[in-house]
Amino acid sequence: MTENTTGVTAAAGFRAAATTAGIKPSGNPDLALVVNEGPEFTAAAVFTRNQVFAAPVKYTRGNNDGTFHAVILNSGNANACNGVQGEKDAEATAAAVGEALGIPATEVAVCSTGLIGDTLPMDKLLAGVATVTDEVQQVAASSPEAGLAAATAIMTTDTVAKQAVYHGEGWTLGGMAKGVGMMAPSLATMLVVLTTDARIDDPAPYLKASAEVSFDCIDIDGSTSTNDTVILMANGASGISPCDEELAAAVNAVCMDLAKQLQADAEGVTKRVAITVTGTETDADAKVAARILGRDSLFKCAMFGSDPNWGRTLAAVGMAPVTMVADRISVSFNGQPVCVNATGAPGARDVDLSGEDIDVLVDLGTGGPGTATVWTTDLSHDYVHINSAYSS
Amino acid sequence: MTENTTGVTAAAGFRAAATTAGIKPSGNPDLALVVNEGPEFTAAAVFTRNQVFAAPVKYTRGNNDGTFHAVILNSGNANACNGVQGEKDAEATAAAVGEALGIPATEVAVCSTGLIGDTLPMDKLLAGVATVTDEVQQVAASSPEAGLAAATAIMTTDTVAKQAVYHGEGWTLGGMAKGVGMMAPSLATMLVVLTTDARIDDPAPYLKASAEVSFDCIDIDGSTSTNDTVILMANGASGISPCDEELAAAVNAVCMDLAKQLQADAEGVTKRVAITVTGTETDADAKVAARILGRDSLFKCAMFGSDPNWGRTLAAVGMAPVTMVADRISVSFNGQPVCVNATGAPGARDVDLSGEDIDVLVDLGTGGPGTATVWTTDLSHDYVHINSAYSS
């Protein structure tokens, strides 16, 4: 159902543009704009749950009343922890976009990603806004090149642009995402923009439900960003109103696809690890336990070393504040039982984990129906190198 | 007040012995025994809060009724997650020690540390028990060599033996400890044995209070072991009953000294990081926030890189489930303010963190009296190497 051909401009009536404003020292593109041509402008957004949140999150959350016409996104600077100046800068960015496009500033969502604690170079950023607002009015709607350019301009230490698309019967839903570190979203994640030409009166329930089973199940490093934002815009340009089930499936498919792309490009990743916990009283319990295992440095180092270390697995889940039956815990790696009823299974130390994908299944032994999957990565030398060698 | 000359045998009336039973593949010493000669045998112990706990923890906790005569400790094998066989092996170990020393098995505390999930080589272990029980009856009480031998025999990836001592007026309290990884104790830690010739009717309150402000404030890697045990034995051999304040100070001093030694020898450590959080409503809130920062991989990588990255600091503490005033958070590194009221201070990126010790002070801005310090380390290449290159 999902093809990665185009992203945020795949749906009818969405334009995008990108430029190099000069915010990144690298000289790579760092400013992107996505504009909804209508006829409808329904939108939904979810944000970081971090108590320390960035100025663009404050601005966009404050204007999140069910409609957005455009999203402006910069990389290279998070505009977080910049006090009143940061808030003024986010407002000025939205105002400049709004003025150029002839829409209220409150209809412009603002997203930023990059280093925390440096104020935005507003001269460069506003010159960039002039460029992208001009360009977006000249580019064709649904341009794949423009969608890719936008997805590229929001990258920081991402190594690939992340796009996904779902084609319904006569309608489309597409999106783009960025995010490689500080990645343990809490019902929101990183920067994600989804667009659809379907008619959706209220996209919020679909976005919330999908975010919970996709982005919220990624836990790369236990760190939740100050800037996480996911926005879905719907314009009804296809004239089609998909049924509830299809809409949910479409939003799920694109969110899941983007989430898997984020996991695969996480900082320093050498292994993609899917942790499924079962046998808890509730799904929420299972997610808590899976997340605790996904954050455990010793477990993650073992994954890096292709070491089927079920002892560290049990020690980690044993600290989860959920009901379990400790002497009935069982663990499988890649489908092979390594621990049954909290004791080692024959051959447990010889399971082959040398591949890039590792499936971990942990049953906490209560006999309850709870289950959840969290996607994480290993803890590698490159992760340490990337995150110690320079500020980011 | 604290000298590291001798440890667990510093107090009058305590003997120790150690041997190489052959549990460790390395051929290093791996079995230690500490025996209290009396006349009194009061004792206290605290244990891991992990729901997955080892057989020796189950055995020792089950017999933790206020007295112990001896502690037998092996390294090289945690005897964790070995089911009923593990429980039988812990019982058999205590029984063998008890028989040789002429004391009930229930008066023998059992501690194990090492790899999780392999059953103990009981033939080797019981032969080792015969050796150490024989030796301990020939060695002099208060032998510094015997104390060091015991502290050495409980090491796993520890690079140095950890001992501490407090000399009161006519009485002494000493101890030994081991622990380098899987180190985020919860009111208990690793393996620690404290001995004193003071008269203490009920050592439990002193041990609990000290553990809470010492071992429980270490958080190296967020992982809580299945085997953490701290035991304090008092024999009254000095005939002295120190006052409440001095006893508390002595237990505190030795626990704190050992805790700092554990931090300094943590796996892969290149920086010792003390995180103090203030300005919370309660001390408990401050500890929660300090612990969350101490577990944050991005923050720890920044410390490894000597990077005064206060942005990651704010992002990490912002996820603490405690009351804070986000725009009044302030941060200092090594006494230099780098962030004031959630915005960068002049020169913040230039603070020198190249030394081995880094002090981090975070004020969460509520104006409340809460404060706590947690000791952690950086996240280094060596940490990843040590924990991925082989099972441990």
Automatic annotation (TrEMBL), chains A, B:
Pathway: Amino-acid biosynthesis; L-arginine biosynthesis; L-ornithine and N-acetyl-L-glutamate from L-glutamate and N(2)-acetyl-L-ornithine (cyclic): step 1/1; Amino-acid biosynthesis; L-arginine biosynthesis; N(2)-acetyl-L-ornithine from L-glutamate: step 1/4. Keywords: Acyltransferase, Amino-acid biosynthesis, Arginine biosynthesis, Autocatalytic cleavage, Cytoplasm, Multifunctional enzyme, Transferase. It is an enzyme of class 2 (transferase). Transmembrane segments: none annotated. InterPro entries: Arg_biosynth_ArgJ, ArgJ-like_dom_sf, ArgJ_beta_C. It catalyses: L-glutamate + acetyl-CoA = N-acetyl-L-glutamate + CoA + H(+); N(2)-acetyl-L-ornithine + L-glutamate = N-acetyl-L-glutamate + L-ornithine. GO terms for molecular function: L-glutamate N-acetyltransferase activity; L-glutamate N-acetyltransferase activity, acting on acetyl-L-ornithine as donor. One of its GO terms (cellular component) is cytoplasm. The keyword Transcription regulation does not apply. The record marks 188-189 as: Cleavage. It is found in: Cytoplasm. It comes from the Bacteria. Its EC number is 2.3.1.35, 2.3.1.1. The active site is at residue 189. The record marks 113-114 as: Involved in the stabilization of negative charge on the oxyanion by the formation of the oxyanion hole. Substrate binds at residues 156, 178, 189, 267, 387, 392. One of its GO terms (biological process) is L-arginine biosynthetic process. Belongs to the ArgJ family. Heterotetramer of two alpha and two beta chains. Catalyzes two activities which are involved in the cyclic version of arginine biosynthesis: the synthesis of N-acetylglutamate from glutamate and acetyl-CoA as the acetyl donor, and of ornithine by transacetylation between N(2)-acetylornithine and glutamate. This is Arginine biosynthesis bifunctional protein ArgJ. The lineage of its organism: Bacteria, Bacillati, Actinomycetota, Actinomycetes, Mycobacteriales. The gene is argJ.
